[in-house]
Automatic annotation (TrEMBL):
GO biological process, one term: G protein-coupled receptor signaling pathway
Protein name: G-protein coupled receptors family 1 profile domain-containing protein
Molecular function via GO: G protein-coupled receptor activity; odorant binding; olfactory receptor activity
Membrane-spanning segments: 22-42, 54-72, 78-94, 106-129, 141-158
Keywords recorded for this protein, A-Z: Membrane, Transmembrane, Transmembrane helix
Main location: membrane
Top-level taxon in the UniProt lineage: Eukaryota
Compartments, as annotated in UniProt: Membrane
GO CC list: membrane
Domain G-protein coupled receptors family 1 profile: 4-120
Length: 177
């Protein structure tokens, strides 16, 4: 998860051909995937090693809050990406104006602000219920927190010809020297 998402982020950052709105959103998607798996996996690995499945109530609520931040942000970012595709298809001649770097930055900022706000509401509801479930034996939670972020760079990017070309151009000069 970490290696795949970091490699994609670095590739997008250093390759000027990938400085387009679509890759700007994919960069942020990789960042979100990296962050939300980092919220859950360290504690889960600690529980596997120590065989103690204990977490404090405040630690659980903090983990829940940040997990909700990144999961909600991911959902909202997918909406922003859908809007980007809508503009590209419906307004191809106005695409560069409608999806300027300022608009893209505004959309991503809104995604994170809304992600934090919605997570605050979710966590507030959980605090009111005084409930924290840490059943990590469920396959669905492992799948959602580990497998999906690990596969996201492959699904969203590595099957894309622009990313393959950028990776070849980036790696080729380093291999020759």
């Amino acid at each position: 998860t970490i290696v795949g998402n970091l490699l994609l982020m670095i590739l997008i950052k250093i390759n000027p051909h990938l400085h387009t709105p679509m890759y700007f959103f994919l960069f942020n998607m990789s960042l979100i995937d990296l962050c939300y798996s980092s919220v859950i996996i360290p504690k889960m690995l600690m529980n596997f090693v120590s065989e103690k499945n204990i977490i404090s109530y405040s630690g659980c609520m903090a983990q829940l809050y940040f997990f909700c931040v990144f999961v909600n942000s991911e959902s909202l970012l997918l909406s922003a990406m859908a809007y980007d595709q809508y503009v590209a298809i419906c307004y191809p001649l106005l695409y560069n104006i409608k999806m300027s770097s300022q608009i893209c930055s505004f959309l991503v900022s809104g995604v994170f602000v809304m992600g934090f706000a919605v997570a605050l509401a979710h966590t507030g509801c959980m605090l009111r219920l005084s409930f924290c479930s840490m059943n990590q034996r469920k396959v669905s939670s492992v799948f959602y927190t580990i497998v999906i972020p690990m596969l996201s760079p492959i699904i969203y990017s590595l099957r894309n010809k622009d990313v393959k070309l950028a990776m070849q151009k980036t790696l080729r000069p380093r291999m020759i020297s």
